[in-house]
Write a structure and sequence with these properties.
By secondary structure, the chain is an alpha/beta fold. The protein contains 11 helices and 14 strands.
C-alpha cells in the first residue's frame, strides 16, 4: 500500500480532468490516485476509465457537494494520508515529498497545505488558501498572501513551514485516522468553509495544521462556482455563522455572533449600494437559514472549545479602516 491517496472530487468536470489529471499522474509516484465522482452526467467517468485505467474511480450516488462527497468517497480509501485535491489543480514536480516528510517527522501535525498559486497568473497567490489560513474573532477567514480581494505576489516571502489555523480545501492533506476521528466534514455545509470548520474542530482536540511552502500547486479557482455567483455568497455567509455557532468558546458565543450578524448587515448594505441585489438577498437568506437551524448546530458543539483561536481581532477593521491589505507577521 502506498502512503498517500490523492483523491480528486469531480462533478461534470471532464474538461478539467482532461487538463489537470495528467500533471497529477505525472508527479505523484508516491500516491494512489482516485477520482471520486459525484454522480456526473457528462463523460467524466468514461473518460478516466479509457485514458487513465490505473486511476481508481469511486462513484457516489448523488451530487453531494464537497463535504458529503468526500465523506462518502473516503470510506473506500485505505491509504494512511488523504490528499484532497480540486479537479482544477495543477501540481508540480516533487510536490508530495516535503509534505510526506512533515507527516513522517511530526506526529502531532495532522493537516497540511502546500503553497497555492494562481494558475492564471502564476506569479501571484491564489484566493483559496494562498500561503495558509487564519480567521479573526468574528469568523472572517484570511490568508498569508491573500486578505479579502488583495492577492500578494509570490516573492518567496512564504517559502517557510509554519503552523496555520486552517488549510485550504483546494489542496488539503489530512491523516486518515484524524479525519475519521473528527467524523469528516460537516455535510450540512455542502460547500465552502467546511475545511475551516474541520480544522477548527481539529484545533479544539489539540491537533496542529501546517503550511508547507516547499510544495507548490497552481489553482484555477472559481472553476466550479465563480465568485460572482450569489449561491457562493449565500454558502459563505451561512456556513460561517454555523461554524461560529459550533466552535466558539462558550463565553464568546452570543456576543461574537451578534457582532458578526451586524457586520453581515453592513456587507448587505454594501451590496445594495453596488446594485448587487441578488447578493443582498443571499445574505438575508443565509441569516434566515442560520436562525432556522440554531438549535441543531448548538447540539453539534464538542465538549471543549479552546481559547486563542484568532490571530487578529478584526480583519475587517484592519483591511477596510486601517488599509492593512497585506499579511503582517506581527498581527
Amino acid at each position: 500500500m502506498k502512503k498517500i491517496a490523492v483523491v480528486i472530487l469531480n462533478w461534470n468536470g471532464v474538461k478539467l480532468l482532461e487538463q489537470f489529471l495528467p500533471s497529477v499522474i505525472q508527479h505523484s509516484e508516491e500516491a494512489e490516485i482516485y477520482v471520486a465522482d459525484n454522480a456526473s452526467t457528462d463523460e467524466s467517468v468514461a473518460y478516466v476509465k479509457e485514458h487513465f485505467p490505473a486511476v481508481k474511480i469511486i462513484q457516489n450516488t448523488g451530487n453531494y457537494g464537497y463535504a458529503k462527497g468526500y465523506n462518502e468517497a473516503l470510506q473506500y480509501v485505505e491509504e494512511p494520508i488523504y490528499a484532497l485535491v480540486n479537479s482544477d489543480i495543477e501540481v508540480t514536480e516533487n510536490w508530495l515529498k516535503p509534505i510526506l516528510d512533515l507527516f513522517e517527522t511530526e506526529a502531532e501535525t495532522a493537516i497540511i497545505q502546500p503553497k497555492i498559486l494562481d494558475f492564471k497568473n502564476k506569479a501571484y497567490f491564489e484566493y483559496a488558501g494562498a500561503a495558509g489560513g487564519f480567521i479573526d474573532k468574528y469568523g472572517f477567514p484570511f490568508c498569508r498572501g491573500r486578505i479579502f480581494e488583495t492577492l500578494e505576489k509570490d516573492n518567496g516571502q512564504y517559502n517557510d513551514i509554519t503552523p496555520i489555523f486552517w488549510a485550504s480545501g483546494a489542496c488539503f492533506f489530512i491523516r486518515k485516522e484524524v479525519f475519521h476521528e473528527l467524523k469528516g466534514f460537516d455535510s450540512d455545509f455542502f460547500a465552502h468553509q467546511e475545511e475551516i470548520d474541520l480544522c477548527w474542530r481539529a484545533f479544539n482536540k489539540g491537533y496542529i495544521a501546517k503550511y508547507c511552502g516547499t510544495s507548490t500547486v497552481y489553482h484555477v479557482g472559481g472553476a466550479t462556482l465563480d465568485t460572482g455567483n450569489p449561491k457562493k455568497t449565500y454558502l459563505n455567509f451561512r456556513n460561517s455563522l454555523w461554524m461560529l455557532l459550533k466552535n466558539l468558546p462558550k463565553g464568546q458565543l452570543f456576543t461574537t455572533i451578534f457582532i458578526r450578524l451586524s457586520l453581515d448587515g453592513i456587507a448587505g448594505i454594501r451590496f445594495l449600494t453596488q446594485g448587487k441585489f441578488k447578493h443582498l438577498w443571499a445574505v438575508l437568506e443565509s441569516h434566515f437559514s442560520f436562525y432556522r437551524h440554531i438549535f441543531r448546530f448548538l447540539a453539534k458543539r464538542d465538549a471543549i472549545q479552546k481559547q486563542n483561536y484568532f490571530k487578529i481581532k478584526s480583519i475587517v477593521y484592519r483591511y477596510f479602516v486601517k488599509s492593512g491589505k497585506i499579511f503582517d507577521v506581527n498581527f
